[in-house]
Structure formats: C-alpha cells, structure tokens
Amino acid sequence: ARKDLDQNHSEGLPVMINMSVRSRLFIGVLLTAAVVAGCAHKDDSGPADLALKGGAVYTVDGARSWAQAVAIRDGHIVFVGLDMDLESYIGPDTRVVDLKGRMLMPAFQDAHIHPISAGVEASSCDLNGLDTVDQYVAAIKKYADAHPDEAWITGGGWLMSAFGPGALASRKLIDAIVPDRPVLLWSTDGHTTWANSKALELAGITDKTPDPADGRIDRDSQGVAIGSLQEGASSLVSAVMPATTDAQLQKGLRYSVKLLNGYGITAIQDASVDEPDLKAYKAVDASGELSLRVVTSILWEHDKGLAQIADIERLRAEYTTGHVVAGTVKIFMDGVMENYTATMLEPYLIPGNVRGIPMEDPERLKEIVTRLDADGFQVHFHAIGDAAIRQALDAIEASRKANGDLGHRHHLAHLELIDPADIPRFRELGAVANFQPLWAFADPYITKLTIPFIGPQRSNWLYPIGSVLRSGGMVAFGSDWSVSSPNPMEEIEVAVTRMGPLGETKTPFLPDERIGLPEAIAAFTINAAYVNRLDKQTGSVEVGKLADLVVLDRNLFAIPPTEISDAKVLVTLFEGKVVNGDLGAL
Predict the structure, then answer these.
(1) DSSP string spanning 256-316?
(2) How many other β-carbons are positioned within 10 Å of the β-carbon of residue 151?
(3) Which residues contact 583 (CB under 8 A, 6 or more apart)?
(4) 354 phi and psi angles, rounded to 5 deg
(5) What is the distance of C-alpha 193 from the center of its chain?
(6) How does DSSP assign 135-167, residue by residue?
(7) In sequence order, what DSSP letters do the residues of 411-451 get, joined into one string?
(8) What is the enclosing helix (H) or strand (E) of 118?
(9) How far are the Cα atoms of 192, 286, 397, 475, 559 from residue 550, in angstroms, in the given order?
(10) 135-144, 189-198, 476-485 — which is least confidently predicted?
(11) Cα separation of 61 and 295, whole Å?
C-alpha cells in the first residue's frame, strides 16, 4: 500500500521525493521555474514593499507551475518568477527575505467551518481531545467545581463513538456530579446533545413529550428520556438557555482568527450564522482584527418557509462589508449516520425501516433553491446521506432549468454516502462537492457506527472523493471545525492516504478514493476560493491577486505522504502583512 501511495503522490510532479537527494529537489524546482517563468509574470509599476526570494514557490495556477520569487506591493502580488528577474522590484525601501529553499504557496481556505461557536466552546466546558466517558465526566466535574457561579454549564466536544451505537448518552452520569444546575453539552458533530435531568426539567421535557418533527428524544426500553437529544430535539433545551452575549461571540471569534491564521488559513466559509454572529463579524472587522476573508452561510429556518427570504436579503445588505460577504444560505437536508438521522435511499440495518430524518420536503426545496438562486444567493447544503444528496442535486437541477446557470456555485457539504448514479451530476450541474477529508479513514465512527448499519455494499461509497474528481466534478475542502481539526495538513494527508493522520490506521480506507497531492492542495486553495467566490482575488500565487500566502517548514512534494501532517506553517501573510510567524526568523 505504501508503494502505491508514494507512486500516486509523486505522479506528474516536478520534484523528487527521496529526501537523501535534496540538491536534486532544488534543481527540479529551478528547472520547472525556468520553464514557467522565463517570461516572468510581473507588474512593472515600481518597487515592491516585500520581496521573497530563494523559495520553492508552488503557485497553484492553471498550469500548477513553480517559481522562486514573489514580489508584493500594496498587499497585491506584482511579480512571480525567478530570482534573477526580481532585481527591478527591489528599491531602497523594499524588504527582501530569503526563503532559503522553503516552500511558499497560497494561503489555505476552509470552505466549511464554524469559527465563532468553536471559539466560544473553547472557553466553556470543552471536551475536545478527550476520548472516553470517564474522561468526560471528570472534565465536567472539574469545570463545574471551577465555575460555581455559572447558572448553566454548556460546551461540548464529546465523541458519539464513546457511547456506542446511537450515541445514547445518559443524564445520570452528569446528575451524579452536577445535580443542581442544568448542563447541556454538544457532541463534536453538533447533531446530538447530552443533558442532565435539571436541563430536561427546565425545558419541560418529560417521558410523554413527543419527538419534534426534526429530531428525537432518546428513551430507554421503558420510554424514559435518557438525556441524549438528537437533531432538532436539542433546541427544546437550548431555547431556555441564556443567550450567548455579543462580548462572548466576539471573544470566541478573535480566538479563532488567531488560531486559523496559525494554520495558514486566511479565508473561510462560516457554515451557519444568525444575526448575532453577523454582528460579531462586523464588529471584529471594524476593529481591524479580522485577518480572514469570510463568506457567511445564513441559516435557513425550516419552519419559516419562503417568507424568511426578505429578512435574509436584509442581512445580506446590512452585513456585507469589509472582509465579510453575507451572500450564502445554509440549508440542512438531514442529520448524521451515527444516530440514524442522515436520510437514506434504503433503510439502515436496524429495526423499524429507519431512513433518517428529512429536514425539508423535496418539492418545496426545489422552490426554495430556485428562489434563492434567482435572488443572487449561493446555497450551501448540509447533505450526509445518499437521499439527502440526491434531493439537493435535484433542487439545483430545478433551479438551473428555471433560471439558467447564474454562476452562484452552489455546494454540498459532507457527502458521506453518494449513490454512484449521482456522482456525475456534480459536473453536469456545476455543483461543488465540499468534502471534509479528515473523516475519510477507518476511524470508530466508520468502523463501529456506520459500516455495521449500512452494510458493505453501500460502505464502498463512503466519502468518494476520487470518484467525484475522476468524473470531472469540482472538489473543495473544509474542516467543519470544531467537529474536527482545522489543520489543513492533517486533512490533506488523509485525502492523499485515506489513513489516520496521526497514525491511527495503517491501511488505506477505500484506496481507490485517494487523490494526488496537487488535487488535495487545490481543494484547500484555488477550489475553495472558487466556492467562496474569491478565485479572482486569491487562491493562487499570480500577479494581480492579493498576497495571501504561507511559508511552510518543508516542501510537501518532497516528503512521504504519511509525513504531511507533520508540516508546519512558519509564516502567514494576509494582504502582504504578517499575521502569523516572523519573516525575520526564516
């Protein structure tokens, strides 16, 4: 398997992967640079503010070419080419930095992420990074003891796999340590909450409370509510919680901006926002602290129907400013497979002919998407199960028949199980496949909570990234942080290897779905920029584009695929200014 990985990794690339011949690596880069930059790409209007030379510059342009040097003026790239052609851009005030052979490339873009809620969660009862129920209970007790004045204990980050099939988390575990205050904790994927008895009581949830249309109150064999709430049932409790304050939202966002810049990320699509979130973006941007380009996906509320479009239009007009564009609408199609709420063409392999919980009527969805498309909105679908994916594609098809191709770049996120008949439709409809590649290896979510409940035949189509690419579909990547790590290096490694980035697994999961390193990098740069409608401004190292760039501590093309996750971002530039790291330390 490793031999296949290395062959796939290096195919068609201009550099060697044998680390014992570093000189050959550098020569390979130079020769390629000479080909692509013999007639240097440049803007001759004056000296640069910053000149970066002596690098392995992977441009991610249309030819996937390499260069050595980049010059930046007023936040824009004015030169890409060879060191020997850089001299005319160096004036008395130009800062010149020698990259010493390090890799420079476009900054990363995350096409599906939740930075505000992730930042807020980091300062609450944060269970991320823990693995067992005992660890969760200990952490909840520690937090409760340290915060005796908090009326509600909230937070999250627990793994559904820690509780086994169905993620049936018991309220009694929390009652034993926090009996007198309400507790509500979200699972890492955001589709299940774990509540104690006090929280259920305040929400008015009893054993006789009916399940909401878009969710489920988990119960034991006697019909008693056990404390785990699936999908929309969580809102029964969250509705009676104190609202997160504007100050908390802004604090969470500032935390996330710094963290994401540290991973080399300078543009994102926030996958679900409401007006308080939009206010936080506007405030942090106005203060000059938003070193991210942000596309916000305004949450579609299923119970409000088409009447809410007027308010969504108001939000777009009021909050599109500076680095923020509020031009996307997020529609949840279904839940997740681990709790049997992702909608399926065929039933789960559990009693009851269960096919998931559909969040929107398919015929009404066609009308919704057609209206939003005509009104200039991009639509961002949450679609996990094969039925949800088909319905979302059907809605895009209906909008194109009604409106023509308006170029709004609608995209489907997650795409855990695609029916093979629907794979060619991404190319045919111009729909973007927005995968979260970190999930595409055989972790317990797949081996214990998914494959046993959908069977081996359907499991052959889990996260079919390679198949979508081979069919000609556009693939972009996102992390879904805080559901999973926002580190693009880990995600790129899994896309290339289909193995755990930290050594969790040693055998590729569905190896035919692996993709090459150039394709994985493109999915986190120029393709994500395409989804974010930023590809004319960012996403590649080309003259005229904004200087959103990263310097890495190693050349990703010169290392084994299983070491990609070890790579670090040394410097992040946003509009030519350092927002992470130190150019002087290179």
Answers:
(1) HHHHHHHTTEEEEEEEEE-HHHHHHHHHHHHTT---SEEEEEEEP-TTTGGGGHHHHHHHH
(2) 8
(3) 95, 97, 551, 571
(4) -80, 130
(5) 21
(6) HHHHHHHHHHHH-TT-SSEEEEEE-GGGGTTTT
(7) EEEE--B--GGGTTHHHHHT-EEEE-GGG-S--HHHHTTTH
(8) helix 115-122
(9) 36, 25, 38, 22, 18
(10) 189-198
(11) 23
A 10 A CB-CB count for 471 gives: 16
Residue 524 has pLDDT above 70, yes or no: yes
d(CA 185, CA 209): 20
CA distances from 455 to 68, 132, 540 (A): 50, 26, 41
CA angle 66, 574, 313 (to 5 degrees): 115
**Is a pLDDT exceeding 50 seen at residue 120?**
yes
Tokens of 107: 């900054």
| pLDDT in the model for residue 40 | 61
Asked whether the beta carbons of 324 and 296 are under 8 A apart, the reply is: yes
Query: What is the pTM (predicted TM-score) of this model?
Result: 0.89
CA 4 to chain centre: 28
215's CB contacts (< 8 A; 6+ apart) are 229, 230, 231, 232, 233, 234, 235, 341, 357
* pLDDT over 60 (residue 38): no
Q: Packing angle between helix 246-262 and helix 115-122, nearest 10 degrees?
A: 100
SS3 of 105, please?
strand
A 10 A CB-CB count for 445 gives: 20
| Contact of 268 with 115, CB cutoff 8 Å | yes
- 72, two tokens: 């930046």
CB contact at 8 A, 553 and 102 = yes
Q: How far apart are CA 42 and CA 93, in angstroms?
A: 19
Closest CA to 572 of 233, 195, 292: 292
- Token pair 């029916």: residue: 419
Question: What does the block give as tokens for 284?
Answer: 């942090």
Size of the chain, expressed as the number of residues it contains: 586
Residue type, 326: A
> If we measure between CA atoms, which residue out of 28, 63, 34, 30 comes closest to residue 518?
63
How does strand 50-53 pair with strand 475-477?
Answer: unpaired
User: Does the pLDDT at position 26 exceed 70?
Assistant: no
- The amino acid occupying position 273 is V
Tell me the pLDDT tens digit for each residue of 467-511: 999 999 999 999 999 889 999 999 999 999 999 999 999 999 999
For the chain, give the mean pLDDT.
91
| Strand locations in 333-405 (E) | 378-383
Asked if residue 482 has a cis previous peptide bond (ω within 30° of 0), the answer is: yes
Amino acid residing at 516:
G
Which residues are bridge partners to 110 per DSSP? 268
- Average pLDDT of span 262-283: 98
Residue position matching structure tokens 């540290």: 262
Q: Which residues contact 122 (CB under 8 A, 6 or more apart)?
A: 128, 252, 255, 482
Question: Which helix (H) or strand (E) covers residue 72, if one does?
Answer: strand 69-73
Q: Which two tokens stand for residue 210?
A: 């009916």
Given a contact cutoff of 8 angstroms between Cβ atoms, the answer to whether 183 and 198 are in contact is yes
- The answer to whether 117 and 252 are in contact (CB under 8 A) is yes
CA distance 115 to 131: 22
Residue type, 546: L
